[in-house]
Structures are given as C-alpha cells and as structure tokens.
Specification:
By secondary structure, the protein is of the alpha/beta class. It is built from eleven helices and 13 strands. The protein has helices spanning about 35-45, 60-70, 120-125, 135-140, 140-155, 175-185, 195-200, 210-220, 260-270, 275-290, 305-310; strands spanning about 5, 10-20, 30-35, 50-55, 75-80, 90-95, 100-105, 130-135, 160-165, 190-195, 225-230, 235-240, 240-245. The protein has a nine-stranded mixed beta sheet, with helices on both faces. A four-stranded mixed beta sheet has the order 3-2-6-7. β4 (about 50-55), α2 (about 60-70) and β5 form a beta-alpha-beta unit. The protein is globular and about 55 Å long. The model has no long low-confidence stretch (mean pLDDT about 95). Bound molecules: adenosine-5'-diphosphate and magnesium ion. Adenosine-5'-diphosphate binds near residues 252 and 258. Adenosine-5'-diphosphate (ADP) binds near residues 234, 247 and 250.
Length: about 325
C-alpha cells in the first residue's frame, strides 16, 4: 500500500461518563486510542491509504483496536497480537466538569514490546510518507529502536518522514525526551509541535516567540516545521516561508487528540500535493472537528463533511 505508514501503541480507553470521583459501578465508555492511530484514521477518512504497525495484547482491547483500524480501511498487516503481554490502558476520569485526569496503565504493555523486527521493510519502502511521534521512543528501548529502524528504512527509500514531538511528561523527563527526540526531529522532513514542545526540544527560553522557534528548528534540518497554538491556530515555516492559520470557532467539548487530528489534516493535504496554506487550512479544520466532538478520533470527518466546519457561519442544509 502506498500512502501513509505509521507505528505506535494503541491503548484500550476507559472514559468515565460522569464527573466526580470514580466509584464501583460508575458508568464508563470503552474505546481504543493512540496518537498515531488517530493520524492514520484521520488521513484514511480523507481518502488517503494508510497502514498501521504495532503490537497489542491478544485480548479484548487488542482485538478491538485491530477491528477499529480494519473497519476504517487501514492496512493492519503490520499489527501483531502478542500473547505474552496485555494491551495497555488509558483511564480518563472527569474529576470536575472541566478537569479531566488521565491515568496510564501501560507499564509492561504489549505495545511497549514493539521491536525493529515488527517493521516490514517493504511496507516502509512502498509508502509515500512515514509518520512517527515522540510517544513511541518513550515506551521502551525496543520501541525506540523500532522507530529508528522505520526512519532508517524510510531514509534509504527516499520516503519523507513526519515527526510529531508529542511530549508526554508522564512517560519520561524533559531531559531524557530531548536527548531522544532531537535526533529524530533533525532527521525528519516535517516536524510538528506545540509551543512548549518546541521550547523543550530546542532548550529555548519559555517565552521564545513561535516564529523564532520555527526558524531555530528549521536550522537543525527539517524543511517543514509547524507549531500548533491551540485556540490561537498554528504557524508553519516551509522552505523559509512563514504561513499562519487561525483556529475555527467551535465550542470545545474534548481537546484531547486535537494535535493528532491537525497532523492528519496537514499530511492528507500534503500527500494530495497541496500548498503550504492549504495544508494548514485542512489541518485547522480537522483540529476543530476533534475539539468539537468527544473521543480522539471518533468525530473525525469524511471529505464531504469538511464544509460543515469550513463554512461555519452558515447552517449547512
Ligand atoms: N479550542 C480550539 N478551537 C478550535 N481549534 C482548536 C482548539 N484547540 C486546538 N485547536 C486546533 O487543533 C490544533 C492543535 O491543537 P493544540 O492544542 O495546539 O495541539 P495538542 O493537542 O498537540 O496540544 C490547533 O492548532 C488548532 O488548529
Ligand atoms: Mg500533540
């Protein structure tokens, strides 16, 4: 399959349905989640072929993950169900109406057993783009090696590499993250990060302006760098040219997954051969769909639904 290839950990997700402390018998919703899976689903719904490489437990959440991706039309030939370890879990409780708490139950998970042998060279060589994030290298040494292997294979075949910093403070310290992720950013063709993530990566002052962060990061190697700024939109630096996009006005119901949805829109437009401004435009539209719907990926749009956000002043009849 050509199109986008990505690798990472899919987690089972348990989301409490009511705010407050979680008690036995509390209603909750089950799903699966993962930053790279959100990107694969996002591009796929926009018509771009996608393949997902990963390792889940041979258990209910592991099978649910494979079924979700397969149901979206994603190539799951690179997914292994590992009988030796369980699928990791993410538990989301709503402590108060606007304070969500995320707990990871993923230590020793099947996903962290991802290894270089899981990466099929033919799958990478045949892709139009490889997307990786800074979450996977945090999981284990073998998972970090799998990301390296995928990037090596992409480089050898001239396949562009996209890298989303996605720093997760629950998984490692800023210092270890920078040491592991800066080399990945330097090798990538496209880098995405929030403002604080780029500050971390560059060891820059926290008040460094976004356009300065873009210039500094581009100076390290990547031709295309994008900073996401939440409700303030995003900016990119592409072959020395800066472009910006505003965020759409939406009522945020769930901001988790916005960055991954944004990346999906950006990469889908890029794979369609669209220009710098159009990439940011589709990215911002997908980010808006993500924050305006519950779940990281469930609310992402098909191509024919895009006008719903893009023409937001009109009622779409
Ligand atoms: N409140 C919001 N309203 C509209 N769009 C948003 C909002 N928050 C985020 N977005 C969109 O999603 C993109 C990524 O969000 P951001 O919070 O910067 O990333 P991350 O989820 O990685 O922290 C933003 O650049 C913007 O396009
Ligand atoms: Mg992010």
């Amino acid at each position: 399959v050509s199109g986008l290839v990505t690798l990472g950990e899919l987690l089972g997700q348990i989301t409490a349905q009511r705010e407050g402390r979680l008690r036995p018998g509390a209603p909750a919703t089950l799903s699966v989640c993962g930053a790279e899976a959100t990107v694969a689903i996002g591009v796929r719904r926009l018509g771009v072929p996608a393949a997902y490489v990963g390792r889940s437990g041979e258990d209910t959440f592991g099978r649910m993950g494979v079924e979700v991706l397969r149901g979206e039309g994603i190539d799951v030939s690179g997914m292994t169900l590992d009988p030796a370890a369980p699928t990791g879990l993410l538990l989301r409780t709503r402590r108060t109406a606007d304070r969500d708490v995320v707990e990871y139950l993923r230590g020793g998970s099947a996903g962290s057993r991802l290894c270089p042998e899981d990466v099929d060279p033919a799958l990478i060589a045949g892709a139009d783009l490889l997307h990786v994030t800074g979450i996977t290298p945090a999981l284990s040494d073998t998972a970090a090696a799998a990301v390296d292997r995928a990037c090596d294979l992409a480089r050898q075949s001239g396949v562009p590499i996209s890298f989303d910093v996605n720093y997760r403070a629950r998984l490692w310290s800023g210092r270890s993250a920078r040491a592991a992720l800066l080399p990945l950013a330097v090798r990538a063709d496209i880098v995405f990060g929030g403002r604080s993530e780029l500050v971390l990566l560059l060891d820059a002052a926290p008040d460094t302006p976004p356009d300065r962060l873009l210039t500094e990061l581009a100076g390290e190697g990547p031709r295309e760098v994008v900073v996401t700024l939440g409700a303030e939109g995003a900016a990119s630096l592409c072959d020395g040219v800066v472009a910006t996009v505003a965020a759409h006005r939406v009522t945020p119901v769930d901001v988790v997954g916005a960055g991954d949805a944004f990346v999906a829109g950006y990469l889908a437009a890029r794979l369609d051969g669209r220009n710098q401004q159009a990439r940011l435009g589709l990215a911002s539209t997908l980010g808006a769909f993500a924050v305006g719907t519950r779940g990281d990926w469930e609310g992402l749009p098909d191509r024919d639904e895009l006008p719903l956000i893009e023409h937001h002043d009109e009622v779409v009849r």
